[in-house]
Every structure is written in structure tokens, then in C-alpha cells.
Design goal:
The complex is a heterodimer of chains A (about 120) and B (about 110). In chain A, strands 2, 4, 5, 6, 9, 10 and 11 form a seven-stranded mixed beta sheet that branches. Chain A has a four-stranded antiparallel beta sheet with strand order 1-3-8-7, with no helix packed on it. The mean pLDDT of chain A is about 95. In chain A, β7 and β8 form a beta hairpin. Chain A is globular and about 40 Å long. With about 120 residues, chain A is mainly β. Chain A is about 0% helix and about 50% strand. Helices cover about 0% and strands about 55% of the residues of chain B. Chain B contains no helices and eleven strands. In chain B, a hairpin with a 4-residue loop joins β7 and β8. Classes of the chains: A mainly beta (about 120), B mainly beta (about 110). Chains A and B meet through β4, β5, β9 and β10 of A and β4, β5, β9 and β10 of B.
């Protein structure tokens, strides 16, 4: 079974631009979560989508948004990029048992550099 | 104070040693506990997933959860140079759906 895939793998953007990252979950997984990883703050939860609905959100500004499609694929968007948005953005998918917390499997990440 | 505390290391051990990695947490609502391994420039890889207290073993890896002490551990037996990576603990409460709170990660180096 193929793992979580993320595109693109690397991205360089300029301050003020916007960016869209894509994530394809493991086949059959309906939950997709996004995380930001930086050397200073570590791994931080951005948001989770399940059945095309945002189910949970972390403490990030409104410039960070996402969506999920009917095939469970997800995108996240960052508008008005700032230098501090440079990070590894990770997507994780879970089969989601409905109750509780499922095992989450991460993709390789998209490394975003903002100049 | 962070919800999850993890010593960033680095931890250096000789090949074949038993490695002990630990995390402490403050939120008593946490019930799901995971350990991930992350190689440089890669995504985290799920090693162990446990619910509530107790031990779980998988090959050379053993995960322990002590909810009364708010303390979790990962033991690696017969460590190999290929185990050199950053190990991250993660946890969540049942009401948090799939929102994981991560420790800072411990860098481990196993030298031949």
C-alpha cells in the first residue's frame, strides 16, 4: 500500500506571496492532519480534516487554511507569507476509528523556504 | 511550561547498548501515546502506539506508559547504528481527535 504523498517536496517563495501544498493520504484513510516543524518550535499541529470538514485547529493565524476533497486528498494554503513561515510542513493520515485517536502516518513533508 | 517535556539530547551510545528515551507530560487527559522516529530530512515514522497505561513490545522496541507519574518511556534493545535518528514522543486526549502534541525530540547517535 502506498504511503502518504506530499507535493511539492521543496518550495521557495517570496515574502507576501501565497502557497498551496498538497497531500494524498494512504488509501482508505479519511482523516488528514497538517503539522508545521521548525527547529525552534518543533512539531506543531495546524489542523485536521475528516470527511471534508475541519474537525480541529491549532493556534495558527488565519493566514493558514486548508481543505479536504471528497477523495480525502487535502490541501493547505498559506497567504501573505512571512519569513517565519519557513518550515517543513508535514501531512499525516489516519484511518480514524471514529472514537479516540488513530495511528497517524506521516508523509515526507514539503520544505518551504520564504525569502 | 510545555505540555510535553522531552530532553533533546544528544544521546550517544555504543552499538548493542540498551537505550532509554523518556517524556513527561502535564495534561492528565492524555490517553494515547506514540513514539516516532525521524531521520534527517524525512517525515516521522510511527514506531509505537499505546492507549492508556502499560507496556507494549514490538521487536527491539518496548514502550511503557505510567499515567500516575505522567511519564512515558521507549526502550531500544541491541541498538544499531541505523537507529541513529531523532525520537519524538507524541500524545493526545480522546477529545482531541487526531491532534497530537509532540515533545521536542531526542537526538540519538549509536556508534559502532
Amino acid at each position: 500500500k502506498a504511503g502518504v504523498t506530499q507535493t511539492p517536496r521543496y518550495l521557495i517563495k517570496t515574502r507576501g506571496q501565497q502557497v498551496t501544498l498538497s497531500c494524498s493520504p494512504i488509501s482508505g484513510h479519511r482523516s488528514v492532519s497538517w503539522y508545521q516543524q521548525t527547529p525552534g518550535q518543533g512539531l506543531q499541529f495546524l489542523f485536521e480534516y475528516f470527511s471534508e470538514t475541519q474537525r480541529n485547529k491549532g493556534n495558527f493565524p488565519g493566514r493558514f487554511s486548508g481543505r479536504q476533497f471528497s477523495n480525502s486528498r487535502s490541501e493547505m494554503n498559506v497567504s501573505t507569507l512571512e519569513l517565519g513561515d519557513s518550515a517543513l510542513y508535514l501531512c499525516a493520515s489516519s484511518i480514524n476509528p471514529g472514537q479516540g485517536v488513530g495511528e497517524q502516518y506521516f508523509g515526507p513533508g514539503t520544505r518551504l523556504t520564504v525569502t | 511550561q510545555k505540555e510535553v517535556e522531552q530532553d533533546p539530547g544528544p544521546l550517544s551510545v555504543p552499538e548493542g547498548a540498551i537505550v532509554s528515551l523518556n517524556c513527561t507530560y502535564s495534561n492528565s487527559a492524555f490517553q494515547y501515546f506514540m513514539w516516532y522516529r525521524q531521520y534527517s530530512r524525512k517525515g516521522p515514522e510511527l514506531l509505537m502506539y499505546t492507549y492508556s497505561s502499560g507496556n507494549k513490545e514490538d521487536g527491539r522496541f518496548t514502550a511503557q506508559v505510567d499515567k500516575s507519574s505522567k511519564y512515558i518511556s521507549l526502550f531500544i534493545r541491541d541498538s544499531q547504528p541505523s537507529d541513529s535518528a531523532t525520537y519524538l514522543c507524541a500524545m493526545s486526549s480522546s477529545g482531541g481527535y487526531n491532534k497530537l502534541i509532540f515533545g521536542a525530540g531526542t537526538r540519538l547517535a549509536v556508534h559502532p
